[in-house]
Amino acid sequence: MSNKSWLVFQLTELLSKVEPGEVRFHEFLRTPSLSCSVYHVPAGSKEMQSAHVEDELYFVLEGKARLRVEEDEHPVEKGTMLYVKADSEHTFFEIEEDLTVLAFFGSTSGIGA
Q: I need a labelling partner for 97 at 20 to 30 A (CA). Which of 34, 45, 66, 113 fits?
């Protein structure tokens, strides 16, 4: 349900938009200052992320993998939150279990700067 000032999202409904077994990126919100998506990468996949012009925050809903940001690496699993600064090269790799994350992208317009 929505009105002009706010929207409500149900996680079960958002997850139904990503098919198990295939790489899938489903954007469910885009405003001038924020973009939000559900991102799913099956185990064993080669994820091909690259630098983005906006800051990103990932929240891992399911799965197990590693995230490389520039030269640093970090294990990720359910419950992990990761911030990636704009223009930083990054990729998920060694995807051991199907990985599903909520991805939040900040504004490139300088709002709040």
A: 34
Q: CB within 8 A of 21, min separation 6: which ones?
A: 42
Q: At 84, which CATH number?
A: 2.60.120.10
- Position 4 in a domain: no
Would 94 be classed as within a structural domain?
yes
Q: Tell me whether residue 5 is in a domain.
A: no
Rounded CA-CA distance 66/75 in Å is: 4
Mean pLDDT of the residues in the chain: 87
